[in-house]
Amino acid sequence: MLEARKTILCIEDDRETAALIAEELVEQGFAVDVAHNGQEGLAAILRQPPDLVLCDISLPFMSGFDVLERLTEIAPGFGYMPFVFLTALTDRENELKGRQLGADDFVRKPVDFDRGIRRNRRRNNEEGKLPKWPNVNRRDRDGLAGEAPPASGRSGG
Asked: How do residues 35-86 score in pLDDT, each as one tens digit?
């Protein structure tokens, strides 16, 4: 039986950038969903939790920070899900704010896909968030196989 492809949700308001990111990730074997603002992104996470979220910080209606903060408030059980900010912002203040909210990493635009995916796989394996990601299946990840999802270090959770 074939293993299901891991799903990445890309929350990016620039449609051209979102399309390029989605195209590259699909070529690397991932299923990709795209949302173009923070509200759509949060709704997509709650409707069908992805295996990883790539989220721009500067978004219309709800910033990437607001998405992560709101997600942590209303659904702290999503703490196992890697949340990576995708941003052109490089100042230390934004990175510290994201880390305090529980972001797993920051990927700078333009995206170096090979480096970013390798780094996140390594980090997730080391922290035990998604053992051997991307080889964990959604059933085990969601605790449906008899165990609760791993605890998160995120604040508010």
From this structure: 999 999 999 999 999 999 999 999 999 999 999 999 999 888 887 889 999 8
What average pLDDT does the structure give for the chain?
Answer: 77
Amino acid type, 41: G
For every residue of 3-33, which 3-state class applies, written as one string? CCCCEEEEECCCHHHHHHHHHHHHHCCCEEE
Q: Is the dihedral of CA 90, 12, 47, 81 positive or negative?
A: negative
Domain count, the chain: 1
Domain-located, residue 156: no
In sequence order, the 6+-apart residues with CB closer than 8 A to the CB of 131 are 125
CATH of the domain at 117: 3.40.50.2300
Question: How do residues 75-102 score in pLDDT, each as one tens digit?
Answer: 888 878 899 998 886 778 888 899 999 9
Report strand pairing: 7-11 vs 52-56. Answer: parallel
d(CA 119, CA 113): 10
